Amino acid sequence: MSFILGNNVKMEVTGASHAPKITVKLCGIPKGVNIDMFEIEELLLRRAGGNATYTTKRKETDKPVIVAGIVDGVTNGNPIEAEFINSNQRSQDYNNLKFVPRPSHADYAAYIKYKGDIDLAGGGFFSGRMTLPMCFAGAICRQMLEEKGILIGAHIASAGNIEDDRYDPVDADLEINADCNLPVLNKEQGEKMEELMIKTAEEGDSIGGVIECKITGLPTGLGDPIYDSVESKLSYGMFGIPAVKGIEFGAGFDITKHYGSEMNDSFKLDGENVVTTTNNSGGIQGGLTNGMPVVFRVAIKPTPSIYKEQRSVDLVSKEEVPLQIKGRHDSCIVPRAVPCVEAMAALIMYDILLDEQNNL
Questions:
Q1: pLDDT digits (tens, 9 = 90+) for 57-69
Q2: CATH number at residue 78
Q3: Measured distance CA(50)–CA(55) in Å, rounded
Q4: Which ranges constitute the DSSP H helices of the chain?
Q5: How many structural domains are present in the chain?
Q6: Which of 273, 253, 248 lies closest to 263, judged by CA?
Q7: For 2, 61, 256, 306, which has the most beta carbons within 10 A of its beta carbon?
Q8: Cα–Cα distance between 183 and 51 in angstroms, integer?
Q9: Are 312 and 205 in contact (CB under 8 A)?
Q10: Distances (CA, A) of 285 to 46, 281, 293
């Protein structure tokens, strides 16, 4: 089974968490582009597990094997193809789960849809591991955007009940605090988050959080009204990241608690440029970019694979049974999801940018 995303730039992903390999094909990248493989591998490293006590102990190299499309670091105009070898699977950890669905996983729905003919070891193709090829493709699109002065950054806005500072929605600053182990703006809050993640892991439980993303340098007028709005396309992409359960733009749901006179983004002049004094719209109005930073936040649910005993149903015996999940799992997937959000934002925005260029 393969999964395809994009219009002008198409990404196709195949494989599964415990398959021999995962592959990605990226079509639409022009010939003669210098690709910085170090930048790609740096983003993939941020996504990788096994780097902290609160992440999965599964450690893969996650190094892309370039099959086609890039020669000596330069694109040749053909589709870019890469493979990722899965070398550290422990499928035996999932032997007791074939007919006992894990709570809040896709197990039961997938069992019904595919009539039991599916391998869900490690989550199968529902696994967060499927974000690995997506991050590879997004890292390439990110480089294409950076050449045009479009930058993308993200940080952990909250983990559990601990909140980080928010990005300034008006300025172009994307810097996170380099003195913290987590991608946050406020070092003190980041340290509290890390303590909570470690404590949660020790208790065999999990927590979720919120990731805030900001995109700067976008020209005014990208996107289309109604169904092809920038919000629609970004949302479509973000929900392709396993564990994402919600998205909001600008002031988001909090905008409902205020009057229009408080939330409207007034216009002003910055030299000869028209800008807004605030950015409660999140840089998008009527589905189009308005020249301000695009700001959005995604909600990441607590990792459903936890070590605490849960209740489920044996689909063969039709009995309710206790369930103890084995394997190697994250107590908080949020830190590893930050580069995934950045990569997906790059994929979607580069595709939208090409829409505009093709219509000129």
A1: 555 578 899 999 9
A2: 3.60.150.10
A3: 6
A4: 37-47, 107-113, 131-146, 187-202, 230-238, 260-263, 334-358
A5: 1
A6: 253
A7: 306
A8: 14
A9: no
A10: 32, 7, 12
What does pTM read for this prediction? 0.92
- Residues 6 or more apart in contact with residue 11 via CB below 8 angstroms: 4, 5, 24, 25, 26, 27, 133, 134, 137, 347
The domain of 70 spans: 2-358
Contacts of 303 (CB under 8 A, 6+ apart): 206, 208, 243, 329, 330, 331, 332, 333
Joined tokens for residue 175: 């810097």
| Structure tokens, 237 | 């992409």
Q: Model confidence over 244-275: pLDDT tens digits?
A: 999 999 999 999 999 999 999 999 999 999 99
Report the distance separating Cα 214 and Cα 151, nearest Å. 8
**Residue of 162, 106, 103 whose CA lies nearest to 307:** 103
Q: Tell me which residue has tokens 């941020």.
A: 46
